[in-house]
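Entry for the shared binder. Reason: the reviewer on the internal report wants the predicted structure included alongside the sequence.
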Amino acid sequence: MNWKIFGAAFLTLFLAELGDKTQLAVITMSAESKSWLSVFLGGSLALICVTLIGALFGQAIIKVIPQNILHYIAGGLFIVMGILAIMGKL
């Protein structure tokens, strides 16, 4: 276990999710259902599954695409998503 990478992943995702649509959806679902534990467990399991898919995909894709190219692709996708968000299309 690489604790430095673990900490970086935790901090990055924790900060990225604060105030995100996912957190707002959890707040809304908890308020409507009055069952915060069910929402917490369901949301936690969903985030674990999505993170697992991302980690496995990242491990597989790095064998096909060099890391520096992957950084450019990821950066480009973030720029495109930002532009779409600003334009109200996302």
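Summary line for the report: The helical segments are 3-17, 21-33, 36-61, 67-86.
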